[in-house]
Amino acid sequence: MTNTLTQTYLKQYPFLTRQEFEIAAKSFLEQSKKSVREDGGDLWVWNEHEKLKGFGYLSRKSIIQKLKSESLNENFTFITTDDENFEQVEEELEDPSTLNIASETTEYLTVDYHIIYSTSYKVPVLYFNTYHKDGTPLTNDEIYSCLIEPSRLEDIKTAGFHGGISQQDHPTLLIPFYYLHPCETATLMKSIVDKPQSTILNSNNNNLLNGEIPIEGYIRSWLSLVGNVVGLKVGIGYFL
Amino acid sequence: MSSNPLVQFVPYSSAVEAAFWHTLSTRKIDLYKLDDTSHDILGYYSTGHTITSQHATEANISMPARLCLGTGAFDDVNAASFSRLPPFSYPSIGTIKNTNTIEDFKVLDKNALFKEITEQIWQDINSGKAVKNPYLLTRFLLITFADLKKYKYHYWFGFPALVTETSWNVAKNGEIKVISDLWESKDIERFRENYDLFRQKQSCANAGFFLVKRSNDNEIMIGGLSEFDTFFEGCDSDEKIVGFADPSSLPTNPGWPLRNLLVLLQRRWNVYKIKILCYREIPGKKDISQTCILSVEIPNTAKISDECPKGVGWEKNSQGKLGPRSADLAPLMDPTRLADTSVDLNLKLMRWRIVPNLQLEKIRETKCLLLGAGTLGCYVARCLLGWGVRHITFVDNARVSFSNPVRQPLFFFEDSLEGGKLKAQTAAENLKKVYPGSITEGHNISIPMPGHPITSESQTRSDVEKITQLVDSHDVIFLLMDSRESRWLPTLLGASMRKLVINTALGFDTYVVMRHGVKDLDSASKLTGASSSKMPEVKQLGCYFCNDIVAPTDSLKDRTLDQQCTVTRPGLSAIASAYAVELMVSVLHHEKGPVAPADTINDPGSTDISTSTPLGIIPHQIRGFLTNFNNLLIVGQAYDKCTACSDKILEEYKSNGFEFLKRVFDSPTYLEELTGLAKLHQESEAAGDFVWDEEDNEL
Ligand SMILES: [Zn+2]
């Protein structure tokens, strides 16, 4: 695939064509494999569309433990319920070789992150779904309270993002997903090259010779901006 | 017996992704239909690990030993579907039995199904299939019932582990230890690299079970389970290590897949004592430091009999009991709930971006009574929906006419056929079509009016009762009728129950949107009123009827409002309705609510940006003039001779109730006598300036 040493520049930075998106996505995967990174970049995979070539997307899963914050604890309940009145099974409750795990006290959430190309905005869009261990989704309030770390709200705002979370069908899976409004993405991507000294960029994103980010660094830079919004951020301990 | 402790295995904890339930539903509808035979499904698990928290206040996070079902669970079981599993995961084949009814689910012979899977594992061990494809050791069972109407899923996992007569013990001096306690770090690194290569060769499918040894030149070598005989040739028993991808994250206990692996080792190769490597990595971080090693042994070296051992491994539910679980997927699948989510998100966006103090919950819970389901009623209702208001009740007594649908956005041509449907009910029905989450109803009631003598006392009594009860059970009353007189009763009721009353009336190209004043009981003696120093202070704010007298604009012009309402510029109603709703929302944001004093804004260039609500100011009246495209904010104080809200009237209503109302309906001049207005008229006003219009406006 793409040699990461060469740097290709986008025809219309900050906009991507679908082809450029695929190249950018695959470069991102390759770079991830080469270095051990705090954000577990290796967990991303490229998914081809079942029927249409060139309509693939990136995805990864995260398991998170619900944030420990007083305000969250009270309104957070287990959604999993148990059924009553079922046919009994013959099983000794106490098989001595089975470790007895204390009943579920900690709640883990699964977050699916997908990076999908938007034809209308010509930029990547971050889709995500968050659910409990039985597949039941989080409510809007829980999304805002669990996924978005309160202490980071200001950072997120100064990064130019205004919390545009909406829900629509995933273009490939056709099931409802949350996504971050891509309306500001282009502006955001433009703004980071306008001020290369910006603290948003880390040393890995130094490909700014041309006043823009090469295709190979696009997803990484983009993710470092928008990923913050929904907990997909670099080097945060509670992410696995 | 041995004094060594039993090896205790960490059971699986099932994890089902929302996408799995989606796929199950689709297949049930399109493919299985009423066929409830079992099908293969593909699950996966990853190795367990603990994340050390970076914050001293937070506990470390141990991953549960999860067996997951995801998007690809129904794909055919082959190399291609294995390769689509998430990175760093291992496949596990399951059997799903989905019943057609909840009764079937309850009475299903679960023991028989569980036994079938147990026997399959036993057969695969005996036939050698499980040696070639050791992932077959992790077969599992899933029984489900999908309630597709309620989007509710009942399910129960079984992870059969074969139970041999004698249990495995921790061998002497073989207690479980992390790998770094036993191996040098360079060996750990070599092992990690070699295992990665091995895993790539196996394309993950069979990488979950493997063999480890040191070669003569001290290199760490990895082999597949099927190479058991050759791989360990010449090794001392102490040098043979069998490894498995361990979903357990507990430093003290290995995970479930080891159970059937040990049965296989014992059955195939008469292994009674073995060193086990519990492979645990942090996915994507090339970190295997949590990998553990232990030695296990079986004290009794007798062979396992040929008979299939019994199996254990039904998953416990969230209360720690043996029983199924259920998952409610309605929020993701029920279109009504999805609409809810989207509307809510949209409003949250406004809070996030512009108004952090926006009280969305308060708005959402506000119950609105719309008196009049015409042009104004329709627009107000739609605008309320936009704000997330759910409780919207319509009152009207007219039917939809042919001219209505083009101006009244809740009606359609069909509604005007055959004499026309009742407006209130039809508006409610159509509002539900716009937003199924709305809690709405329509009441066909004519509002009794002063100067419209009662023809049937029982009918009028019942109408008054209904309206009274409706005003009582709502928080905000919108007066959106097209006649002046019909506003009198609800104005009186609103004032007496201290409700927020929003009044909108239209002329041809002018409109008034106002809120009725409510007496501030907390500071009845204090002056309340305009907060702007530029306006004279006023006491309680006036109602539609007080203002009619004291309003600073031409009273003759005012009179055109209402009376010609069917002749208005078509855009006027939408404008006025929108102001009415926005006024309500702003008032809800004031700590005093309906009692809030009126703001005015006179200097747009003023540097003073402090406002009485997060949304800005709250005026008393907005008078709009389309001829000049401008608005005027006006404050009018309550009039002590008001025919609808003055103390005299309220007291009279309080003490005489319906008898008082009846007298007013029969003769409105009674009101003027009561308040002293009649006297006032005689003294200063031209006759006819303030009389109830006798003509019957269309209502
Ligand atoms: Zn009044």
TrEMBL record, chain A:
Gene Ontology cellular-component terms listed:
cytosol
Q: Which UniProt keywords apply?
A: Autophagy, Transferase, Ubl conjugation pathway
Q: Does the keyword Methyltransferase apply?
A: no
List this protein's GO terms for biological process. Answer: autophagosome assembly; autophagy of mitochondrion; protein modification by small protein conjugation
> Does this UniProt record's set of keywords contain Nucleotide-binding?
no
GO MF term set:
Atg12 conjugating enzyme activity
* Coiled-coil features, chain-numbered ranges: none
Cross-referenced Pfam families, in alphabetical order? Autophagy_act_C
In terms of InterPro entries, this protein maps to: Atg3/Atg10
Q: Which PANTHER family match?
A: UBIQUITIN-LIKE-CONJUGATING ENZYME ATG10
Give the family this protein belongs to, as stated in its UniProt record: Belongs to the ATG10 family.
Output this protein's name.
Answer: Ubiquitin-like-conjugating enzyme ATG10
UniProtKB/TrEMBL annotation, chain B:
- Main location (coarse class): cytoplasm
Q: In its keyword annotation, does this UniProt entry include Acyltransferase?
A: no
**GO cellular component term of the entry, any:** phagophore assembly site
The UniProt record lists the Ubiquitin-like modifier-activating enzyme Atg7 N-terminal domain at 7-333
Keyword flag Repeat? no
- Any one of the GO BP annotations: cellular response to nitrogen starvation
Keywords for the protein's UniProt record, in alphabetical order: Autophagy, Cytoplasm, Protein transport, Transport, Ubl conjugation pathway
- Gene Ontology MF annotations: Atg12 activating enzyme activity; Atg8 activating enzyme activity
Q: Which residues form the active site?
A: C565 (glycyl thioester intermediate)
What the entry lists under Pfam families is as follows: ATG7_N, ThiF
Cellular location of this protein? Cytoplasm; Preautophagosomal structure
Q: Where is the THIF-type NAD/FAD binding fold domain?
A: 350-593
Matching PANTHER family = UBIQUITIN-ACTIVATING ENZYME E1 (PTHR10953), UBIQUITIN-LIKE MODIFIER-ACTIVATING ENZYME ATG7 (PTHR10953:SF3)
Subunit structure as annotated in this protein's UniProt entry: Homodimer.
The family note in this entry says: Belongs to the ATG7 family.
- Task performed by this protein: E1-like activating enzyme involved in the 2 ubiquitin-like systems required for cytoplasm to vacuole transport (Cvt) and autophagy. Activates ATG12 for its conjugation with ATG5 and ATG8 for its conjugation with phosphatidylethanolamine. Both systems are needed for the ATG8 association to Cvt vesicles and autophagosomes membranes. Autophagy is essential for maintenance of amino acid levels and protein synthesis under nitrogen starvation.
| Entry protein name | Ubiquitin-like modifier-activating enzyme ATG7
